[in-house]
Amino acid sequence: MKSSRLHLALLSLVLSCSQAPSFERTVSKSASKEADVERKDQDDDQSDDVESNDQDKVIVPDIKKPEMDDVVKKEPEKEPVKHEPDPIMVPPPTPAYDPCPALGQVCTIMPLGDSITYGVNGYGLGGYRVPLIRKAWAANKKITFVGSTQTGQPKLDNKDFPTANEGHSGWTIDDIAGREGLSKIIEDRLKTYKPHIVLLQIGTNDTSVNVDLENIPKRLAKLMDKITATLPDTFLVVAQIVPSRQDPLNNSIKAYNAAIPALVKERADAGKHIVTVDMYNAMTSNNNYKAAYFIDDLHPNDTGFDVMANVWWEAIQKYLK
Q1: Average pLDDT for 187-208
Q2: Helix pair angle (247-269, 216-230), 10° resolution
């Protein structure tokens, strides 16, 4: 009986020893499993912590650190200033000379001279003024005559004829040989009537009295200077005077006339508004001028006054309106 019990104890011990490694492996596996679970739990906790921390974080954008050139704000580069060349100062063009007033207004003309201007022996004492104003009317130009003398008929072609003029029978350039001259009155007459145009024909009596012939041009020059100084904007037309029917007198007239263009040019070159016209050759171009154009030795007839009017007209028509 005792032997049987002993035998069972030994058998139990053998069995116990043979199963021990298996138990250790079981324990080891269980411990490893538990360690894996614990590590997993720790990883999950850390993941939860990271997620929690990520939710609590303020997301800061990634800002590039500014460079120093960016910190100091640069002024935008300016285009180089273009320096335009200084403008050339050109004076405004001088307005074209025009002695007459604006369109629609009357241009005043002073016929100035001796008995030929007065109108002796032609067109009822209207002289060259009659055909001259007819030309203006035909061209629809507005003119009138001014001066202290009144000669001519008040009506012409059923129109009012301006009889005024500054013609003085027997007068000379200035006082000489007992004759009166234009020089002493001209400044007063110009200031009184203020003509836009002056038509000057003087010298016939100066040459006919045969006194101080060599100085006639000088005296004419002084008269012209008085006119241009008194009314500098007035247009002065100076005639080389008409011939006569006496050849000896014509020699003196030609000598006087020859000096006039240079006198006029000298003043025109100085800026004076002055021109010369040639009455002498306008008449002598007709070989029969003595009979065709003159009523006596000194005075033109109506046809002769027509010739004079044509010459005056050519000089002034461009200014008339």
Answers
A1: 97
A2: 40
